Amino acid sequence: MVEILGNEYVLRSDAGEERVREVAALLNERLNEVLATTNTSSTLAAAVLAALNITNELLQLQDQQEKLSQEIEAKTERLLKMIEEREA
């Protein structure tokens, strides 16, 4: 069981109880940030805004991961080419 904005939820997850609590705590933090920094008192509006913020962060992290993967791939190709040239 976790509590989100004062409401209790019974959740099941393969991730384990500790991870569920961690996720719920982060969600509570984000929801409270939205409620504190906007003029809304609607929990639905806060949930939508928090979801948008979290989704934006996820997309930014995915973009960063893709960029890093491309950099690693390019460097790996350069290293393999250097090794092949030395062996030839």
Order of helices and strands: EEHH
Oligomer: single chain
Q: How large is the radius of gyration? A: 21 Å
Question: Number of helix segments?
Answer: 2
Globally, the shape reads elongated
Largest sheet: 2 strands, antiparallel
**Roughly what fraction of the amino acids lie in strands?**
5-15%
How do the strands of the widest beta sheet line up side by side? 1-2
The average pLDDT value, as a whole number, equals: 96
Derived structural class: mainly alpha
Cα(first) to Cα(last) distance is 63 Å
Percent helix range? over 70%
**Whole-number tally of structural domains:** 1
Unreliable residue runs: none
Structural overview:
The chain has two helices and two strands. It is mainly alpha-helical and 88 residues long. It has one domain (2-87). It has a two-stranded antiparallel sheet with strand order 1-2. α1 packs across α2 (43-87). The radius of gyration is 21 Å and the shape is elongated.
